[in-house]
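Protocol step 4 of 6: structure prediction from sequence.
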Amino acid sequence: MKPQIVPTQCEVGFAADEFIVSKTDLKGRITYANRVFMRIADYSEDQLLGVQHNIVRHPDMPRGAFKHLWDTIQTGREWFGFVKNMTSRGDFYWVFANVTPDFQDGQIVGYYSVRRQAPRKAVEFIAPLYAEMLRIEREAGPSRACEASLAWLDEQLTVRQTTYERLVLDLFHQPA
């Protein structure tokens, strides 16, 4: 069960050359967490292993973003995106995430996630998009939240003539 944590306004930083790495099973339960993950999220290995990866989900993240992630990786494709996570103390940290299916004998058996520091300019761009998705989700109600926010996101991407993956990769690679 995910602990009830009150979010703070305190951001936790980490070095540009540090990578947060984890592995999950098919249900999203953590089977591996590197030391950087444990240090940044402020959880011990015992507190993470076997627990849903959403233990670090920040309430500022729209459900639609995670539906997009799961819809992508369950088809065997990798996913790139920006995610605001929360530590055990309620502090937050932004990451640029790459989630990749782990295949064994042609079958997906789990997922790897490698996260690195999100560029500040990218966060400044993506945070208002996520805030609008959250607003739409609240307005739509629980049963339609993901569908409504993803429909809005798709409209924004169509206007920009891009895909979510292309958008986030461009944001990650833009000059500082």
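Step 5 (inspection) to follow. The chain has a mean pLDDT of 96.
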